């Protein structure tokens, strides 16, 4: 069952984030990078698995992955400009 495996993988990533990362001593930039990676991973899972776009044209797939990346970079840029 792919849906069960995806739920388990997501739960493991959440537990990793909550338990391991605070002890790693990451600064604000490290947290921002980690969150951006999680957003990209989640957007990939949504577009490839949930929306079933594995066989869609490559342009559409890349656009769906670039959109969260651009929004995340914009938010990180605005946050760092406010600091």
Explained architecture:
The termini are far apart. This protein is about 80% helix and about 0% strand. The protein is flat, with a radius of gyration of 15 Å. The model has no long low-confidence stretch (mean pLDDT about 80). The longest helix is centred in the C-terminal third of the chain and has 25 residues, at about 60-80. By secondary structure, it is an all-alpha fold. The chain is built from 3 helices and no strands. Helix 2 (about 30-50) runs antiparallel to helix 3. The chain has helices at about 1-20, 30-50, 60-80.
Give a brief outline of the structure.
The protein is mainly alpha-helical and 83 residues long.
Secondary-structure map:
Elements lengths: L1 H18 L8 H23 L7 H25 L1
Helix pairs in contact: 2-3
Number of helical stretches of at least 4 residues: 3
- Distance N to C terminus: 45 Å
* Number of beta-strand segments: 0
Rounded to an integer in angstroms, the radius of gyration calculated over CA atoms is: 15 Å
Global morphology: flat
Mean pLDDT: 79
Helix content: over 70%
Global structural class: mainly alpha
